[in-house]
From TrEMBL:
PANTHER family: 54S RIBOSOMAL PROTEIN L1, MITOCHONDRIAL, LARGE RIBOSOMAL SUBUNIT PROTEIN UL1M. Belongs to the universal ribosomal protein uL1 family. GO terms for cellular component: large ribosomal subunit. SUPFAM superfamilies: Ribosomal protein L1 (SSF56808). Keywords: Repressor, Ribonucleoprotein, Ribosomal protein, RNA-binding, rRNA-binding, Translation regulation, tRNA-binding. It comes from the Bacteria. This is Large ribosomal subunit protein uL1. Pfam families: Ribosomal_L1. GO terms for biological process: regulation of translation; translation. Gene3D superfamilies: 3.30.190.20, 3.40.50.790. InterPro entries: Ribosom_uL1_bac-type, Ribosomal_uL1, Ribosomal_uL1-like, Ribosomal_uL1/biogenesis, Ribosomal_uL1_3-a/b-sand. Part of the 50S ribosomal subunit.
Amino acid sequence: MARKPGKKYTAAAGQIEKRPYTLEDAIPLVQKIKFSKFDETVEVHMRLGVDPKHADQMVRGTVVLPNGLGKSKRVLVIASGDKIREAEAAGAEFFGGDELVEKIQKENWMDFDAVIATPDMMRSMARLGKILGPRGLMPNPKTGTVTTDVTKAVNEVKAGKVEFRVDKTGVIHAPVGKVGFATDKLLENASTLIQAVIKAKPSVAKGKYVKSATVCSTMGPGVALDVTVYNLRQL
């Protein structure tokens, strides 16, 4: 049985007109109708015209948001030799080699928000696929989290690097900042994320690429975006 929306949620939803909004109008509206006491995350959700069951239609990538996410991620670097010292100098919270892989595997230790690994450690990292994979934390060369340039990777994560990946229903969910951000900073972040998703369109995808999109806060109702302009850019 579906749970009935609360009064505050219903009141917030009542302030949204039943029409698609431009991003420039949607962001301030999301900030206006926010009703919880904590500084909620603002999220963008995009339903794409792809079939993720086919590898050549998988949409994924990373983007560094120009204004960050409003919180510093705790970074774990799995490396060896000088790369461990490089990780420490770059500001990673946790750094080490096989001993940390074993700690995750045996103790289910998960006190981190992002994982970076050097290529030589990926054989050891393979043991963590079932633990890190479902959480979206498994390092991957395509997202820049398997690399020899540890300093760059740590700096990007700290600066607000966001990974996006289409789920099995063809939807991308991604954070773009906090409700308490200045409107122009949220707008710039959201626009940067959307453009990155558009650029990641698979060449084999046909028809309308962005079927629908919404922006919302963690607890708030979604505001539908006018996706016409995004699909025109694909022509």
